[in-house]
């Protein structure tokens, strides 16, 4: 019998060859902790999860009604790869109303959430060996997406007392391979909104060195204590051709599961990102796009109501945290997170566990207080941990009582 050709030999499951770039990819810590908390709940543990950055509100009536109308009208077909023209025009109108910035529909792209748009921006801007500046603490996906493009993330550490970055540090980090800077405000995980002088300085560096700023402002509608969030171009209009805004419906409109994000920026960059999306997802769900359009047009009252609830929750959790030992938090100015410094608890013990870093702290917190939180190391800021207060006041009260008892019991 003739031997089979070598390429016809069937490989076993263990022989699948995974690409090197994918084997370098690390899972998102936020998802890992959330899934572990859910698994412990299935085992009967009374776990309170403060790990997920997801509003607990159901999408507003304006969103639901627009989706129903789209279904009744039979809008179940492909949309243009860049997204519905009506939705792109509405996003451009929103940026004009909200920030007094003029954009055309061709400078707007709709994606299946903010993460795919961030990835498409990295793929459009980065070649192998290029560098991207990332300011810590940072959203967990920035580093992995840059690495996946065979580029190098350059991490800028911030002052642990304020979480502000230094323009001098960023200038020193710029090389002839630097292509982009990631800016995220209100920041995930800290809720920090950077001062005008820092933002203007960053824009000026981008202009000087021919860099693109990825301005991730997905939380810009969730702001506290009367603070005003200003888009970077309100502070430095000259940076318009150096700025790509990433926004979306997930946070402000409580539409996480609908997966709708917006990218707004230079037409050529949007064109290239759209081309990539056309070969990847072909664009987001048509019904989800019509739903987001309804939310943008008619959901302002619900957006304001949710923002007011986040303010109450922020006030509640910070009041409780202010009376706890070993913990120092950075007051959030936006988003719905507390980012707290836990280094004072290093060396303390509970049960058979000793706290040596932020990871072991979160492990002990989960085991002995049944609270799930995210270690700061996941956000490039060891010594801290993140809690989400996108949950009810009753749950926050219960979680804070458990946390106080846990901290008070540390030996």
TrEMBL record:
Per its record, the protein catalyses: L-aspartate + 2-oxoglutarate = oxaloacetate + L-glutamate
PROSITE patterns recorded: AA_TRANSFER_CLASS_1 (PS00105)
Q: What Gene Ontology molecular-function terms does this entry list?
A: transaminase activity
Q: What is its EC number?
A: 2.6.1.-
* TM segment ranges: none
Provide an example Pfam family for this protein.
Aminotran_1_2
Give the record's keywords alphabetically: Aminotransferase, Pyridoxal phosphate, Transferase
**InterPro entries from the entry?**
Aminotransferase_I/II_large, AspAT/PAT-like, NHTrfase_class1_PyrdxlP-BS, PyrdxlP-dep_Trfase, PyrdxlP-dep_Trfase_major, PyrdxlP-dep_Trfase_small
**What is the residue range of the signal peptide feature?**
none
SUPFAM superfamilies per the UniProt record, alphabetical: PLP-dependent transferases (SSF53383)
* Primary enzyme class: transferase
Q: Which domain of life is it from?
A: Bacteria
Q: Which family does it belong to?
A: Belongs to the class-I pyridoxal-phosphate-dependent aminotransferase family.
Q: What is this protein called?
A: Aminotransferase
Organism annotation: Chelativorans salis
């Amino acid at each position: 019998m003739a031997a089979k050709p070598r390429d016809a030999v069937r490989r076993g499951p263990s022989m699948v060859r995974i690409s090197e770039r994918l084997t370098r990819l690390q899972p998102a810590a936020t998802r890992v902790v959330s899934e572990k908390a859910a698994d412990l709940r299935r085992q009967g543990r009374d776990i309170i999860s403060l790990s997920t950055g997801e509003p607990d509100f159901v999408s507003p009536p304006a969103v639901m009604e627009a989706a129903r109308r789209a279904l009744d009208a039979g809008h179940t077909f492909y949309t243009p790869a860049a997204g519905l023209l009506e939705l792109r025009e509405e996003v451009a109108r929103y940026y004009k109303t909200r920030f007094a910035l003029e954009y055309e529909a061709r400078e707007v792209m709709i994606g299946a959430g903010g993460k795919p748009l961030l990835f498409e921006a990295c793929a459009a801007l980065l070649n192998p060996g290029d560098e991207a500046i990332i300011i810590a603490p940072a959203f967990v996906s920035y580093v992995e997406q840059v690495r996946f493009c065979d580029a190098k993330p350059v991490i800028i550490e911030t002052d642990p007392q304020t979480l502000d970055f230094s323009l001098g540090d960023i200038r020193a980090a710029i090389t002839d391979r630097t292509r982009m800077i990631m800016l995220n405000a209100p920041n995930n995980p800290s809720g920090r909104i950077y001062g005008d002088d820092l933002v203007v300085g960053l824009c000026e560096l981008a202009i000087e060195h021919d860099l693109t700023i990825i301005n991730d402002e997905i939380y810009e509608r969730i702001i506290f204590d009367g603070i005003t969030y200003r888009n970077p171009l309100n502070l430095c209009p000259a940076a318009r051709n150096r700025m790509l805004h990433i926004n979306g419906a997930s946070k402000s409109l409580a539409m996480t599961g609908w997966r709708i994000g917006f990218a707004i920026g230079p037409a050529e960059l949007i064109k290239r990102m759209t081309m990539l999306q056309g070969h990847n997802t072909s664009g987001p769900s048509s019904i989800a796009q019509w739903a987001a359009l309804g939310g943008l047009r008619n959901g302002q009252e619900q957006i304001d109501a949710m923002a007011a609830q986040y303010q109450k929750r922020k006030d509640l959790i910070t009041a409780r945290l202010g009376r706890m030992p070993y913990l120092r938090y950075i007051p959030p100015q936006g988003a719905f997170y507390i980012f707290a410094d836990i280094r004072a608890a290093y060396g303390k013990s509970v049960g058979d566990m000793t706290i040596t870093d932020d990871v072991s702290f979160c492990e002990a917190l989960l085991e002995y207080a049944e609270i799930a939180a995210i270690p700061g190391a996941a956000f490039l800021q060891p010594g801290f941990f993140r809690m989400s207060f996108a949950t009810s006041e009753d749950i926050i009260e219960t979680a804070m009582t458990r946390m106080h008892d846990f901290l008070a019991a540390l030996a």
